[in-house]
User: What shape does this take?
Amino acid sequence: MSETLPFTGEPAADELLSHNPLALVIGMLLDQQMPFERAFSAPYRLRERLGGRLDVGEIAAMPPDELEAVFKEVPALHRFPGAMAKRTQALCQHVVDHYDGDVAAIWADPASGQELLKRVRALPGFGDEKAKIFTALLGKRLGVRPEGWEQVVSPFDDDKPRSVADIDSPETLAKVRAWKREMRAAGKSKQD
Assistant: This one.
């Protein structure tokens, strides 16, 4: 991962997202029912609270009540810290079980866009829309573009600034925010 992902407005948090696949996946997992800047800065805070380490195996093996307590520390890492601690642990356990703890293996060498989307969709906490957005993020920001990736992530493959997959600068972050406000005011969703 080499491109800087300017999702949070905090250089240290963005740096972590840009160079740590686990941070990026956790940020995407937490990106619901709260501002995405806060969701994507949460992995940085989580790493700080875990003693400076963000390790998939360690998180998977933590006693659930300990991880929940970490998520609930003030300020909480999510609007729903208990539920998101459980989802984060399930996500980490999935990566341990299916990818030998290598988060980047999720998107390494997929045979097709459909296979990549299937791998992402299998992650605990990733529904259809979140899986499409994350797959689009991989394609647009990180160059993970197996054949057919655009078709499987539609409409998130276009140039409309509608999701975190489209953010490559503070200016595009502002455009995504404005577009989302317009869609909410019109009673539409990100896929419209």
Remarks:
- The chain has two domains: 1-106, 116-192.
